[in-house]
Amino acid sequence: MFLRLPSYVFVSHEVSSNAQSGSAVYNVSDWLSGVVVSSKPRDVSLLYASDRKLFNVTSPSGSVRLNHDPPHDDTLYSLAVLAEYQPNISVIFLICLKMAAELGTPPIPLPTSGYDEITVQVLENVPVGTVLVEDLGSVVDIRGGRQYDIMSGNDEGLFEIDHVTGNIFTRAEVDYERCRSHRLVVQITVNETDVLVATETAVFAVVIISVDDVNEYRPVFPVPVYRRTVFGSQSSGSFVTTVRAVDQDTGRFGQLRYRPQTPTSSFVVDRTSGHVWLGNPVAMTSRPGDDVIKLGMTVVAEDAGGWADQVHVELTVRQGSTDSEPSFTADTFEFDVEGSATAGHVIGRLSVTGSESALFSVRRPSRYFTVDRHTGRVVVARDLQTSSSADSQVYVVISARPTVACLLTTSVIKVE
């Protein structure tokens, strides 16, 4: 069982004078000995090294090894090593290594240090060149001469740091929809000079850049009107259709609310799903000219920022009945789904013939997929990034009113 671990660990370590090519100079698992049961990481990777040619990391053992014989002259090296233990548990080791000096050479004390962590907020799509942190050294209360280098967390090159002033600024636009948080590990080399000797100490700062969402996109309905035809009298609460607008924003600005443009008792609109039902019953009669009844309304989809789009819903009620035993239009429906699909993502729709009032249900429950009862849309119920091949199929059946639990046919949805 894992305990709660810090996100970053600073380690100072002196390399033996006997170290040579192939020697293991440190092992990240040693730090966790006695702290965590089954502490072997599942993967370890080298994020940064001040001399990448000298060091390599063996995964998953976590051993830091030398690629060739090191110098023995009190040289200091800094490394950042990522150890992943579970999908949501990882530790970055900030390691300062000092090579032992040759015999007879006065040793330089091993610098002791740690790390500071700060968080800054930034709106997505701020102009390139926007300064996010001014004089990082002063922010983390480090004095003296300093040099700054980003060690990790900047693989896409979105940020840059001035090596002299310590200002961190954007090199490209940050996008909330793409990544909501960035973690930069910055090495601050501090030059300390006293009467006898000048030393350098490596200090680390972890800068968490949290990206705030901006309402960039308006909701848009993919069609100008939703039309549906039913036959015979309809009772209150009969399902009409589902309206669905698309908003490319994520987060709160991508969460839409649906409502009638004008208050009406004829229809009921679900605020979150966009499902539309009849509010009042519709009774067909045999009087001349009463063989067709048309109802309509306008539905508005609005995001949290107040941007909106609208669509018209038209319902035609005709005399008679054409409902018959429903059946799927295919024996097998196949949909391609990205492995990164998240909950709520619609991957496709099942189609049937022979019934306007067919209802869909799931025969064998799946942790990762569900089917909308009224529309037949197949929806991701749980993020797929941790799904296994054993959960890659969903079995769906339909039942039609009024015969509940009438299993008509089975459709297998294959996820590639």
Q: How would you describe what is shown here?
A:
It is a single chain. By secondary structure, this protein is mostly beta strands. It has four domains: 1-112, Cadherins (Immunoglobulin-like, Sandwich), CATH 2.60.40; 117-214, Immunoglobulin-like (Sandwich), CATH 2.60.40; 225-318, Cadherins (Immunoglobulin-like, Sandwich); 327-415, Cadherins (Immunoglobulin-like, Sandwich). The protein contains two helices and 30 strands. Strand 20 (292-302) and strand 21 form a beta hairpin. The chain starts with 7 loop residues before the first strand and ends with a strand.
Please write the CATH class name of the largest domain. Mainly Beta
Which residue ranges are poorly predicted, with pLDDT under 50 across at least 5 consecutive positions?
Answer: 103-113, 194-198, 386-416
Quaternary structure type: single chain
Identify the strand order in the major beta sheet. 1-7-6-3
Termini separation (Å)?
34 Å
| The CATH fourth-level homologous superfamily of the largest domain | Cadherins
The CATH topology of the largest domain comes to: Immunoglobulin-like
Outline: elongated
The pLDDT mean sits at: 77
The secondary-structure class comes to mainly beta
**Largest β-sheet summary:** 4 strands, mixed
Rg of Cα set: 32 Å
DSSP strand tally: 30
**Strand coverage percent:** 35-45%
Helices, strands, pairings?
Layout: E1 8-15, E2 24-27, H1 28-31, E3 43-49, E4 55-58, E5 63-66, E6 76-86, E7 89-99, E8 115-123, E9 131-133, H2 136-139, E10 145-152, E11 159-161, E12 168-170, E13 181-193, E14 198-212, E15 225-231, E16 239-242, E17 257-260, E18 267-269, E19 275-278, E20 292-302, E21 308-318, E22 327-328, E23 332-335, E24 346-349, E25 352-353, E26 358-364, E27 369-371, E28 377-380, E29 393-400, E30 411-415
